[in-house]
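Ticket #4471: structure output looks truncated?

Reporter: J.K.
Steps to reproduce: submitted the chain below (369 residues) through the standard prediction queue, then opened the result file.
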Amino acid sequence: MPIYMDLHLMNDLSAKVVAEAHLKDLEYQSEFRCRSLTYWFDENSGNAFCLFEAPDLEAINQLHIKAHGVEPSRIIEVNESKVRSFLGRIHDPEVWYDIENPNLKVFEDTAFRILIYIATQDAGLLRFSLGKDQAEQLILFRNEIIRKELENHKGREVEMVDKGFLASFVSGVDAVNCALEIQKKTSLLVKELELRIGIHAGMPVAQSEELFGDTLTVTRRLAAIARKFQIILSSHLGKLCKEDFPEGDYAPSHLWFMDPKEEIILEQLMDTLEAHWQDPLFGINDYCRKVGISKSQLYRKCIALTGMSPNSWLREYRLLKSLDLLKLDNNITETTYSSGFSSPSYFTKCFHKRFGLQPINYHKEAAHN
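Returned output as attached by the reporter:
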């Protein structure tokens, strides 16, 4: 059966009260063909997250109505392996038993996690610039460094793809220290890899249909605007870690602490860009109108956040997306228009200037790997 995670927004509840509510779920679960696997609860935030096997969402809703009189605030379908990777378990952790009720297992285990996304240089471009053997050696070396530091700092590898690493931490201090060590070692030893790191924190269920989807979106966006070997912390995480990592001790080019206003601007710019990048007619005038700012304001904001002008940033975003499209076996013409360029000749010119090779050669390279 599918696995689901739900969210309960609660106030002034103790670990014992939540354990008693979980016992109610167990009492009625068979009636609705559900199986309650475990839960997470953080008394400080007042949020609880329950993990169920169930035939569908409605079965979980009906179970909660029967057991507690209310539906969960939110339910999403999740992948078991992703739950393990992000949160470390899918069954109850070590518990203590209530003296008055030996059947009551009580524990408090937060689902709050700090996510690191390490954006890496495209493997196909690396093979082209360095040669296949040297590129693969560097990639292996990079992966060894990252995995070793994750182990040293109690991080969990969630996902490794061609474009980056995703890892989960319980401690913000561990997460930032891990990122700093990765930054230090890779910048000294494997400069060709151009790592860029974003770090944010949040809960597993919010608005997104994906586990930790809202947190992951911000984390990836921070990495996307980071400069070479730069770490960007969200304002939320910076606030949590400010005593251990005083902002004045680090140059922004090394460790950038975003403030809430910068994050709002980034969200506006990225939401608009992600909605319209494939439209060849979408230009700077449209960008300004959608965001509701002038050209001069857009220019200043883009320079401050990305180091690029709006035109350069829009082109860069489209070119990076074109790499993904070429890997999907799209031809040059299809890739041109799907990535928002107005003509194959202009796309080819921009691609060659940015990456140092023709898109057709990248397409062939991707097809063989």
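Triage note (M.O.): checked the attachment and the full token line is present. Residues 132-152 form the longest helix (21 residues).
Status: closed, working as intended.
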